[in-house]
Amino acid sequence: ENPASQSLRLPAIFPLVVYQGEEHWTASTEFLDLLNxxxxxLASMRPYLPSFRLALEQLALTPDADIPGDGLGRLxxxxxxxxxxxxxxxxxxxxxxxxxxxxxxxKSGLRWLSWLVHYVMLVNPKVxxxxxxxxxxxxxxxxxxxxxxLGERLREEGREAGRAEGERSML
Length: 171
Hints:
Blueprint: H1 3-6, E1 16-19, H2 31-34, H3 39-45, E2 55-58, H4 71-81, H5 88-94, H6 96-103, H7 109-123, H8 129-135, H9 141-170
Parallel strand pairs: 1-2
């Protein structure tokens, strides 16, 4: 095959929907079925539209043990699934072994932990940073300090946003 034509090839695309709803997914997994195209136009456009099936992972309906993947990818899916959990201690305790493995990566483990904590804070307003810090105690002080640092950063971003909003309202 011509090397020049190799550089023009696109990478593979894997269309995956990670669905977190408590109810069953009811929409089609066929991409064409999801398009809002009038039937007369669809007939003439069909040869030019991508046609593929979406892979679907329904997290709420999948037992934790059956969540696919390993490492950070699996841990991210488990946290996505558990975003409604009000008991933050239980959430971190359930996934403590996976979190310990994550933290063994000295270079990026704490950064990924910070990402997971940030996600929990964004999607579950009932969770307080103090509860997260307490729930991270079994993982050690570095994990707790990471959460505290994130909390301070989020608080400062909130202050800055509040100041900016106040300045705009004064104009």
